[in-house]
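In response to reviewer comment 3 from the previous cycle, which asked for concrete evidence that the modeling workflow produces usable outputs, we include below a single protein chain processed end to end. The sequence was submitted unchanged, and the resulting structure tokens are shown without manual editing.
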Amino acid sequence: MVTCSWASATSYINKVESSTVSGQTLVKVYLSEPAKFVEGRLVFNNKIYLDFQNTIIREKVNLTINQNKVQAVRAAQNMTKPTYVSRVVFDMDALVDYDLVTSENGKLVTLTFGERIVEKQEAQKQEVKNEVVEEKKEVVDTTSRGNIDREENK
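The workflow returned the following structure tokens.
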């Protein structure tokens, strides 16, 4: 656990859980308050991540899933200075297509993983776009409702 003053954080990740519904793997991230986040893919080692800005994780998460190419989900405090960043990492057998949805109140982020494997070339294009997003410090705001259209938000 990080040993510093957390007064400047505006949200906490309270819980991360997974389930399987109709053959699809769902991973839910529960927040105390809506938070902005950056979404990214690491093609070279088949990882997907969400960096929640100005957010603290209550306790580290390490879930073993082994379904729909999702091996595990891990979450930990990634940064404490100059701001708090909590990272949720999805360890994958291969990069698969997924849907990302936020709840109406912005306190729940749900990723639904299907079975369609994303080609490396397609994933690399996505990764390059995410690198540009991170450099510009543009982030997704969980106060937006419904499905997130990744292209519009970039």
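Residues 47 and 112 are 15 Å apart (CA to CA). We consider this sufficient to address the reviewer's concern, and the full set will be provided in the supplementary archive.
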